[in-house]
């Protein structure tokens, strides 16, 4: 796969998303700190600068060299010095296997709903657990599967909008009424409905100053539409987490129900946006609520484009006509860079997935090499 360098111009940026699987459970069997059941394992590895899996992730980022990149499944801690700052200093600022080091002077890193107890029995097993399936978002500990945005351009932190605590019930035309037991009775109790948040992690609107222009990064990581039962509570939550962005970018009465964590109401207020993240849904295959993902991609405010491709994905499942668009090792398109129609044109794009035998293919051999997802990127011209 050939990657042309991103032009050093205020008018051109490379934007990417990458589910990096950088959460503590992923490192429990590694040689360092082996078999420790410890929610701080990621941060221990970030401090060493020697974990090969994280070095490979850094090498992929150095290879693609995005100006702005969202990392999904990067554990959250309130102490940024042991999280993003350690990753930047000990891995990204260090040249990996002949690549040039890369620096991200700016980042956004905030709390998420995973592992945060809801105080109610969400999975209907008769017990209220402090984490797991009774958390606002599934996680063994608070902050698991978090999000991190890295940027080579300044972030307008004052005007970031987050929607971590937005209640699902407050969403217009939500799917809660369709989540039922086999006999048709509601799955969630009245208490649960009054408590449950929409975002399994969070939804973020992050303004990035690119020269004289503002680019809004709309970041999220909806719940996987599996690991539930016939009530389909995760599938329908995934649907509504994606629907949220469709409503938000309408920026009209459709978005009037939306309020952020500071109490400000309404939808998108800007010109350019890029929706980034592992959306855990595909429009043509898989277990997700495909229609909502298809609706988002076809939204009148989204720039219509062919999805990024890779030769590695295509070769992995040659019998599947969608394989060249796949972004996950297990064979689905779930990770997206979705730019607005306003203010952008696409120069080029790709999925970092070298075919077997090509240079750097060892970096994506399996999850242990880097991640079970692939970095997805687009080079965009501002206009």
TrEMBL record:
Single GO term (MF): catalytic activity
Limits of the Endonuclease/exonuclease/phosphatase domain: 16-373
Lineage top rank: taxon: Bacteria
A Pfam match: Exo_endo_phos
Protein name: Endonuclease/exonuclease/phosphatase domain-containing protein
